[in-house]
Specification:
Elements (H helix, E strand, L loop, with lengths): L18 H18 L5 H10 L2 E2 L36 E5 L5 E2 L1 H14 L3 E4 L5 E6 L4 H9 L13 E6 L14 H11 L12 E6 L14 E10 L2 E10 L11 E8 L3 H15 L10 H8 L1 H14 L5 H4 L25 H8 E3 L5 E6 L5 E3 H14 L4 E3 L5 E7 L3 H10 L14 E2 L13 H15 L5 H4 L3 E4 L13 E10 L2 E10 L4 H4 L4 E7 L3 H15 L6 H8 L1 H7 L1 H4 L12 E2 L2 E4 L17 H21 L3 H20 L10 H13 L3 H6 L3 H11 L7 H25 L3 H5 L2
Parallel strand pairs: 6-7, 7-8, 16-17, 17-18
Antiparallel strand pairs: 1-2, 2-5, 3-14, 4-5, 4-13, 8-9, 9-10, 11-12, 12-15, 14-15, 18-19, 19-20, 21-22
Helix pairs in contact: 1-2, 1-4, 1-20, 3-11, 5-6, 6-8, 7-8, 20-21, 20-25, 21-22, 21-25, 24-25
């Protein structure tokens, strides 16, 4: 891109980005170019872009799958380029990490700009406190990443087989029931695990969550790969902060409850334990079968007692790291923007009291409240994002967080400012009441943008929310408190397993037609950090789900015992009875008798599942040696570019880096966990592959390895054009030799997997 162009990414930078972030983005941009040229294997590029948060999505000829026209498409006719990575023949999605949900006004402004310039004008909040931009193009992602990095945001490891976003209670630090503020701990674990060498060889993704207490749901620790629940204990007469640490939770088609790994574990041991878990998971977790590659399957296979023994032993052999304690701050740095003042009982705006009842939380700090901005389906327009940024500056000193229920939370609002904040929210269409009630429905993207979507989860959530909002005043309190969550397929991205009324998309055949359905899931528990999981009861046509909700709510109100919650009510009357009461709704009439059943919510077209594809919720498992060779390709390519520019020293240095990565690729066929420094890598290569004749045997030429040793001995501090040219060429020859070696030994599982 021309940096002199006023629309280039450099024109938008207000702050310098960290140098390592800048280099990673530069490397990714090279990978995009190599992929376009067919020089990167598609599965390698797929995992590379996933680790940068760039995700394939469903795309429907300039329309969303909810039938609405896309407002902004850079290349509306031909998508991107018809490159080797076919996931990117059409626009995709950029996931943006916000650890523990913390987001600043400046970052909100940047999201607004990016949504407007590169996407469809919408920023979407996810169920793990991230943001997503949809309908973006892979060629734009490096510029998007640079703009984000300039305001302190990285997209690294937002997707792929990596440690994903670290989530935490959005109320942490201002919660009345928490043991202590987990924000500093969530911040520390994010910083420590980002790019950590012990977290680069997973078979699938790894999700971490923090909760300030056991009884609420803000952290939903039970459904995470690893979770921390804050506690306080008294030791020798002194109060001490500790965690109950859980592992092996997860939703998906078959959910697993997390198991208690350590009870009352010291906070200062949080990071080494996490590192130990990552190492054991990376070493023993499934690599070949993606469906069995989550840590929950490893914990289930070994049993929690054996798994605990492995972690204890792994902890003993870890090299001490000053960051284990150095990264953990004692307290978060949040401060209020305005002095605490009580709400005055003067004339209040219309609708204010209803909004205050459901959307305002009294903080333990006198005179301050937390305000939930209810965000339907998690979608915010660019103008709304900018308005929220201004409110963050005006009312709360930018103390804003996203929530796992796809809302925004303003913390440290002075009570006296509530009416003015309500009016400002109303001016941009965000003053709806009902936050955290039955009408505040969580939904995954479903058929709108997800390749795995079967039914229109967002369309159903939108319709249910509309109807429930219209009747909210008439609903009994016990119904208002229910949770509804919707997923477009069985994978539970909408968290349907841990809600009172859960739904996930399926389909059914009726003659020659396919009918969109949702499975009703009952028995889930949102409280107690997602304390228990529900089970499917009945499949009902999508268009009849509102009637299903109505019947269940009516019967609950009519027949519930005193103080009986919905979960206990379902258990008491039994799922057989519930299925019977819904049996008539499950019957599919002839097409002409009720044609609307054969379409999905928000889409007038006849329903089909023909465009359901392969999902990308985790990248394909790729051997570490292949990542090293991909990096070597990038450096070799960059060396040629610098040579063309007559930057001879830069060309030589990049050629040497390419050789190091090539040698690392060979070493990793023996030891996939290898992360040694350059000299150590060369020594390892020489000892086990060159001196033994192993490398020469498969390559049949000793000269190629000699290029590496020569480059190590003579780094060419002031190369002339010929020397630079030869070094770049030698690097390419050594790289090709390494490719041949890896290809020749690929048939040996022992050689590739190593120790």
């Amino acid at each position: 891109m021309n940096d002199d162009n006023p629309k280039s990414w450099k024109a938008h930078l207000k702050n310098p980005m960290p140098s390592d972030w800048a280099q990673e983005i530069d490397d990714f941009e090279v990978q995009i170019e190599l992929n376009k040229q067919g020089k990167v294997e598609p599965r390698i590029f797929a995992e590379t872009r996933l680790r940068r948060g760039a995700y394939g999505q469903r795309y429907d000829n300039g329309h969303r799958n909810d039938g609405k026209q896309i407002r902004h498409l850079k290349y509306p006719n031909d998508g991107l380029w018809k490159g080797p990575d076919t996931h990117w023949d059409a626009p995709g999605m950029q996931r943006i990490k916000f650890p523990w949900g913390g987001i600043t006004a400046q970052q909100l402004d940047t999201l607004a700009d990016l949504a407007e310039e590169y996407s469809d004008g919408i920023g979407h909040i996810t169920t793990r406190q991230d943001f997503q931009l949809h309908f973006i193009h892979v060629e734009d992602t490096p510029d998007i990443m640079r703009r984000l990095a300039a305001v302190g945001i990285t997209t690294r490891e937002a997707c792929g087989n990596s440690v994903r976003n670290v989530t935490a209670c959005p109320l942490a630090g201002v919660c009345r029931t928490e043991s202590f503020d987990v924000t500093p701990c969530a911040k520390a674990i994010f910083q420590f695990m980002l790019g950590h060498p012990d977290a680069q060889d997973f078979g699938r993704k790894f999700k971490i969550a923090f909760s300030g207490c056991a009884q609420e749901a803000c952290g939903v620790v039970n459904m995470h790969d690893m979770g921390f629940i804050a506690k306080k204990v008294t030791v020798a007469g002194k109060e001490k902060r500790v965690f109950d640490i859980y592992v092996g939770g997860g939703l998906g088609p078959v959910p697993y409850n997390a198991k208690l790994l350590f009870e009352n574990h010291p906070v200062e041991e949080m990071l080494p334990v996490t590192q130990a878990v990552a190492r054991v998971y990376g070493r023993l977790g499934e690599k070949k079968i993606r469906g069995m590659a989550r840590i929950k399957f490893l914990v289930a296979k070994l049993g929690i007692e054996e798994f605990r023994k492995l972690i204890v032993e792994e902890r003993k052999v870890l090299t001490p790291d000053p960051r284990w304690t150095g990264l953990i701050e004692q307290n978060s740095e949040e401060k209020p923007a305005r002095a605490a003042q009580n709400l005055k009982a003067a004339s209040l705006p219309k609708g204010f009291l209803d909004w205050k009842k459901t959307n305002v939380y009294q903080q333990p700090q006198y005179g301050y409240v937390a305000v939930t901005v209810k965000v339907p389906l998690g979608d915010l327009t660019s103008s709304q994002l900018r308005a929220l940024a201004e409110m963050a500056r005006k009312y709360v000193k930018e103390t804003v967080r996203t929530t796992v229920e796809q809302n925004l939370l303003f913390r440290w609002v002075s009570e006296a400012d509530l009416p003015a904040l309500f009016e400002d929210l109303r001016a941009v269409g965000l003053s709806a009441s009902g936050a955290n009630t039955i009408s505040d429905i969580t939904s995954c993207p479903g058929t709108d943008t997800c390749k795995l979507g079967i039914s229109a989860s967002r369309g159903l959530a939108r319709e249910l929310s509309r109807r429930l909002d219209e009747t909210m005043a008439e609903l009994p309190q016990e119904v208002r408190n229910l949770k509804i969550k919707v997923s477009g397929c069985p994978n539970s991205c909408g968290q349907h397993h841990i809600s009172d009324l859960g739904f996930y998309g399926v389909s059914r055949k009726s003659g020659s037609y396919t009918v969109p359905h949702f499975q009703l899931v009952l028995g889930g528990q949102w409280k107690n950090n997602g304390g228990s999981y529900g089970l499917a009861v009945a499949a009902v046509p999508s268009k009849r789900i509102p009637e299903t909700v109505q019947r269940l709510a009516d019967r609950f109100v009519k027949e519930r015992l005193k103080d009986e919650n919905f979960q206990n009510f379902v258990q008491r009357i039994g799922k057989v009875e519930i299925k019977n009461m819904l049996s008539d709704l499950a019957v599919i009439p002839p097409h002409d008798a009720e044609p609307s059943l054969f379409t999905d919510w928000g889409d007038l077209r006849e329903y089909t599942i023909a465009d359901i594809g392969k999902g990308e919720c985790a990248g394909e498992v790729v051997a570490p040696s292949e990542f090293s060779l991909t990096a070597a390709e990038s450096k070799a390519f960059e060396a040629q570019v610098e040579l063309d520019k007559k930057n001879y020293k830069a060309a030589v240095d990049l050629a040497y880096e390419s050789m190091i990565f090539s040698a690392e690729g060979v070493v990793r066929t023996r030891n996939r966990e290898w992360t040694g420094k350059p000299d150590a890598t060369i020594a390892e290569f020489k000892r086990f592959f060159f001196d033994t004749g192993e490398f020469v045997k498969h390559v049949n030429n000793t000269q190629f390895a000699a290029y590496l040793f020569k480059a190590q001995e003579n780094r060419l501090s002031n190369p002339n054009p010929d020397e630079a040219h030869r070094r770049v060429e030698e690097a390419q020859l050594f790289l090709e030799a390494v490719h041949s070696y890896v290809a020749n030994v690929a048939s040996s599982p022992v050689a590739l997997l190593g120790k």
